Structure to design on (245 residues):
């Protein structure tokens, strides 16, 4: 394999590849390493509400391809990665952050001995995160929304507190991990294609995912053929999207 690319080289090399070379398998260990890079992505409140299902079985890939509407990117993939949002694990992830603080600051520190940083962090994961993620049929989220809207009349306030808002937060976080993964793959000279077009319910059932899990995207992996990239890269003029304030 060629020398690993720089970040800029990897970003420019990355394309959504639709057809992979069937005669060029890719190293599962390298894909796993790229997923380890995915897990280092920035994410909301360090809650890490994601899971990565690395599909290496040809039988499973063959079963998933029809659920991706038989896109070439799925049918010809050497491997797949299913990026899954796990907002339902927020309690477990908050507890994991608190356990990390026990290791960093010491366990069972009395408040009088806690630094201001420790107090803020423990309050954040012990009280603010449960306030943000707790929900009951969407009603608590609505109540929170009216409450923060009222407070927001008098001071700056975080307003994305409804159930739908927190779902968006979790999906944004998972998308950041997926981007880390695809750039890491490109740095290794490997190709990917993010696929949102899929029957997520059937994929969930195939993988045995719980009710609270949501599929963010499926990323196919392999090595491009000459016809794998469908055309030149198109982007609207940068001046249309760049706004200096």
């Amino acid at each position: 394999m060629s020398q690993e690319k720089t970040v800029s080289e990897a970003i420019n090399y990355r394309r959504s590849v639709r057809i992979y070379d069937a005669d060029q398998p890719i190293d599962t260990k390298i894909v796993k390493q790229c997923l380890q890079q995915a897990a280092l992505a920035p994410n909301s409140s360090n809650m890490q509400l994601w899971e990565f299902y690395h599909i290496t079985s040809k039988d499973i890939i063959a079963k998933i391809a029809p659920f991706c509407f038989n896109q070439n990117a799925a049918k010809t993939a050497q491997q797949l990665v299913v990026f899954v949002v796990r907002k339902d694990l927020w309690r477990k992830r908050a507890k994991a952050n608190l356990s990390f603080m026990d290791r960093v600051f010491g366990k069972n520190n009395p408040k009088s001995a806690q630094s201001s940083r420790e107090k803020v962090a423990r309050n954040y994961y012990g009280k603010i995160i449960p306030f943000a993620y707790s929900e009951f049929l969407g009603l608590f989220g609505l109540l929170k929304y009216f409450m923060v809207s009222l407070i927001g009349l008098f001071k700056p306030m975080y307003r994305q507190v409804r159930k739908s808002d927190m779902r968006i937060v979790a999906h944004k976080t998972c998308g950041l991990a997926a981007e880390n993964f695809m750039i890491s793959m490109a740095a290794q000279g490997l190709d990917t294609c993010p696929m949102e077009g899929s029957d997520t319910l059937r994929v969930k059932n195939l993988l045995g995912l719980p009710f609270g899990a949501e599929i963010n995207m499926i990323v196919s992996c392999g090595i491009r053929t000459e016809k794998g990239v469908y055309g030149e890269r198109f982007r609207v003029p940068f001046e249309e999207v760049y706004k200096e304030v």
Remarks:
- The mean pLDDT is 95.
- Residues 7-88+181-241 form a domain with the NADH Oxidase fold (CATH 3.40.109.10).
- The chain has two domains: 7-88+181-241, 89-165.
